[in-house]
Specification:
The chain is α/β, with parallel strands linked by helices and about 260 residues long. The protein folds into 2 domains: about 180 residues, 3-Layer(aba) Sandwich (Rossmann fold), CATH 3.40.50; about 60 residues, Helicase, Ruva Protein, domain 3. About 35% of the residues lie in helices and about 20% in strands. Strands 4-3-2-5-6-9-7 form a 7-stranded mixed beta sheet, with helices on both faces. A two-stranded antiparallel ribbon has the order 1-8. Helix 3 links the parallel strand 3 and strand 4. Helix 1 crosses helix 2 and helix 7 packs across helix 10. The longest helix is centred in the C-terminal third of the chain and has 12 residues. The N and C termini lie far apart (about 55 Å).
């Protein structure tokens, strides 16, 4: 029985699970981390495709069931714990494949990107609305902090939509599968990543305001610095590309 307070919505359709595995672009030499294996259907498919699967399950009952149900798979390591607290930094090169609870989507993405040194790719089944934000281009309502945080160091692609009726229990919204490939180098040059993200976060904290207003807390001379970056101070944050944010943050950094 799925537990709603843990955001559990299980996917049973084998054809959809096979498509997820296909999207993940796996090989026999891969180490795959699966977050929230649930009943273990995807885990079994992964184990048959790769060298090793590390499956992290928080639910006590499901963990015990998985131990029994996956005992024959010697290349599956079960971890009973919180995926947000797992030490991904200690792993060799790895890929992630997961159908994650909606309520931890953003935290788990940021947690994985924080351990991106050996991360090759992430294939996630998540809320369709969040998937659209991750892949959004500048200029639209979906484009924002999450888009930039992900696209700065990865290349995300929305692969296909999964109707809500494919899950049990049925969630309120449709889902989507996103494949996120980690880039060898960031998509734009920034002198200080922490400051770059501070600029982006500050801009989007008041996304309806013009940049001259939303960023004035960073610099009193923000209009002059925007002009130096070749950016109209009347523009709103959702119109700026990652390259423009990078250029602006490098200029603003001079005064810090």
């Amino acid at each position: 029985m799925a537990k709603r307070y843990l955001g559990q919505n299980f996917l049973y359709d084998p054809s959809i699970l096979r498509r997820i595995v296909q999207v993940a672009q796996l090989s026999r030499e891969d180490l795959v981390v699966e977050i929230g294996p649930g009943p273990g259907r995807l885990t079994r498919m992964l184990a048959e495709k790769v060298k090793k699967v590390i499956a992290i399950e928080l639910d006590d009952k499901l963990f015990e069931e998985l131990k029994a149900g996956l005992a024959e798979y010697k290349n599956v390591e079960l971890i009973h714990g919180d995926a947000l607290k797992y030490s991904y930094e200690n792993l060799p090169e790895f890929k992630v494949v997961a159908n994650i609870p909606y309520y931890i989507t953003t935290p788990i993405i940021f947690r994985l990107l924080g351990a991106k040194k050996n991360l090759i790719s992430v294939t996630l089944t998540l809320q369709k609305e969040v998937a659209e934000r991750i892949v959004a281009a500048p200029g639209g309502k979906d484009y924002g902090l999450l888009s930039i945080m992900v696209q700065y160091c990865t290349e995300p692609r929305l692969k296909f939509i999964i109707p809500k009726g494919a899950f049990r229990p049925v969630p309120r919204v449709d889902s989507a599968v996103v494949h996120i490939k980690v880039l060898e180098r960031p998509s734009a040059f920034v002198k200080d990543e922490e400051f770059f993200f501070r600029v982006v976060k500050t801009a989007f904290s008041q996304r309806r305001k013009m940049l001259s207003n939303s960023l004035k807390s960073l610099r009193e001379d923000i209009k002059e610095r925007l002009a130096e970056a070749g950016i109209d101070s009347n523009r709103r944050p959702e119109t700026l590309s990652i390259e423009e944010f990078a250029r602006l943050s490098n200029i603003l950094l001079k005064g810090y």
